[in-house]
Amino acid sequence: MGCMWVTSNVCPGSRCATAPDIYKPGLSCLTRGPTPCAPTDYNYRWKRSAGRIHPMAMAQHVSRYLTEHEIPYEVLTHPPTMSSLETAASAHIPGDCLAKPVILQDDQGYIMALIPATHRLDLQALDSHLHSHVEMAEEPELAALFEDCELGAMPALGPAYGLRTLVDSHLAEQPDIYFDAGDHECLVHVDGEALFEQMDGIELGEFSHHM
Questions:
Q1: pTM of the model
Q2: Which branch of life, at top level (predicted)?
Q3: 3-state secondary structure 82-129
Q4: Where are the domains of the chain?
């Protein structure tokens, strides 16, 4: 089944007010998403599968950041996947446009490096860019950093989680950007230029190679 986007103006289990969402093809027609629901960890929308409607969740950090920075977005659903390339294929989107976050650590703290799903991170190039040695963060550390997300479905919004964020130039040049909403079935779709203009303090560099 292809991607579907079904919206709701009600956040289950909360009393927050939300703005109506309108989906029209093309990013020029996107509206601002609903205000995050403070009492919960997730901003609920709805997805339809096998003729039934189920709540779908966007990580609260993501919803809040996009709303506060006035970044228009849409949410797509797709069958569950366990890798970024599978996600791109399942959602029928170009892998070059799907942002893959890689969490690393140096002596200054945690870093999020964003590369296209079709690329592999070049750690040596990243070391040179940062003028320091970086190592991959461990799984327990990821769970602690992204408490409102499913493991392995980290959103590509480092500033929303207080992380220093580096964006690979191959990703930065994409007109459309997709990234995990916080689970393995939902993607956020934004205009690339609008996203990177509004992301606080990001750094650009070239530290990935096509697989």
A1: 0.75
A2: Bacteria
A3: CCHHHHHHHHCCCHHHEEEEEEEEECCEEEEEEEECCEEECHHHHHHH
A4: 27-210
In terms of Cβ atoms closer than 10 Å to its own Cβ (0-12, 13-18, 19+), residue 145 is middle
Which residue, among 3, 196, 182, 204, has the nearest Cα to 90 in the 3D structure?
3
Query: Which three-class secondary structure state does DSSP give residue 130?
Result: helix
128's CB contacts (< 8 A; 6+ apart) are none
pLDDT in tens, 140-194: 999 999 999 999 999 999 999 999 999 999 999 999 999 999 999 999 999 999 9
Torsion angle in degrees (nearest 10) through CA of 40, 58, 66, 108: 90
| Residue 135 backbone dihedrals phi, psi, to 5 degrees | -130, 155
Joined tokens for residue 164: 């220093």
- Backbone angle region of 92, left / alpha / beta, with phi > 0 → left and psi within -120 to 50 → alpha: left
User: Cα dist. 187→71, 119, 122, 131, 146 in Å?
Assistant: 15, 19, 25, 33, 16
Which of these, 145, 162, 144, lies nearest to 201 by C-alpha position?
A: 162
- Tell me which fold the domain 27-210 belongs to: YbaK protein (3.90.960)
Strand partners, 139: none
